[in-house]
Design goal:
The structure holds two protein chains of two kinds.
Chain A (H helix, E strand, L loop, with lengths): L3 E4 L2 E4 L5 E7 L4 E9 L5 E8 L5 E2 L8 E7 L2 E6 L8 E9 L7 E3 L3 E5 L1
Parallel strand pairs in A: 2-11
Antiparallel strand pairs in A: 1-3, 3-8, 4-5, 4-9, 5-6, 7-8, 9-10, 9-11
Chain B lengths: L3 E2 L4 E5 L4 E3 L2 E2 L6 E7 L5 E7 L5 E3 L5 E5 L4 E6 L8 E8 L8 E2 L3 E6 L1
Parallel strand pairs in B: 2-12
Antiparallel strand pairs in B: 1-4, 3-9, 5-6, 5-10, 7-8, 8-9, 10-11, 10-12
The chains are: A mainly beta, B mainly beta.
Chain lengths: 117, 114
């Protein structure tokens, strides 16, 4: 089946530094990737939609200058948390839509746990 | 506003007992419904989905769900649960097949006890 990977799986960083998280579709081309944030014991909140070759579309309330998203190819999207602070600590999950399958088909990555000290 | 409500935050159940996890969504003309399972510190795995056709949908691991348009519900059921079913379950809906944007419910923790 289709596989989506995320790297790193866990990252700990100091406050004020920037962290980049990669999301890759390993065996399919993803025209669209989604980035979600999940706080402990809570649901997934969509942060932004990333389309290959164009600017990401951010959900209301998400700071686009803080959460930089780049979708440079059909298999890679990156989320950069700039000047991270402890309140940015969370579980970040990406998903990808397979270009060759119906639009409802979406595959999720295993997630990245970010801890900002 | 479009929304998904999972009525139970936690559902404790004994092994081999039946279980139902409830999900309601805000009404719309066209809707696609999904159930996902999340094990600790992992991403989401699709259990089943309803796009059209038969209202009873069968998924993986013995789960099934029934789409009820009049009650705007999509409850998840399993006739006999196992310890390994202990996980977080999310109901999700998309109102547009074009965007693929999913709206998730709050999640239900299924706790299967021996």
């Amino acid at each position: 089946g289709a596989v989506v990977s995320q790297h790193p799986s866990r990252v700990i960083c100091k406050s004020g530094t920037s962290v980049k998280i990669e999301c890759r579709s390993l065996d399919f081309q993803a025209t669209t990737m989604f980035w979600y944030r999940q706080f402990p014991k809570q649901s997934l909140m969509l942060m932004a939609t990333s389309n290959e070759g164009s600017k990401a579309t951010y959900e209301q309330g998400v700071e686009k200058d803080k959460f930089l998203i780049n979708h440079a190819s059909l298999t890679l999207s990156t989320l950069t948390v700039t000047s991270a602070h402890p309140e940015d600590s969370s579980f970040y999950i990406c998903s990808a839509r397979d270009r060759g399958r119906p639009a409802d088909t979406q595959y999720f990555g295993p997630g990245t746990r970010l801890t900002v000290l | 506003a479009q929304s998904v409500t999972q009525l139970d935050s936690q559902v404790p159940v004994f092994e081999e007992a039946p279980v139902e996890l409830r999900c309601n969504y805000s009404s719309s003309v066209s809707v696609y419904l999904f159930w996902y399972v999340q094990y600790p510190n992992q991403g989401l795995q699709l259990l089943l989905k309803y796009l059209s056709g038969s209202t009873l949908v069968k998924g993986i691991n013995g789960f099934e769900a029934e789409f009820n348009k009049s009650q705007t519900s999509f409850h998840l059921r399993k006739p006999s649960v196992h310890i390994s079913d202990t996980a977080e379950y999310f109901c999700a809906v998309t109102y547009s097949s074009n965007t693929g944007k999913l709206i998730f419910g709050q999640g239900t923790t299924l706790q299967v006890k021996p």
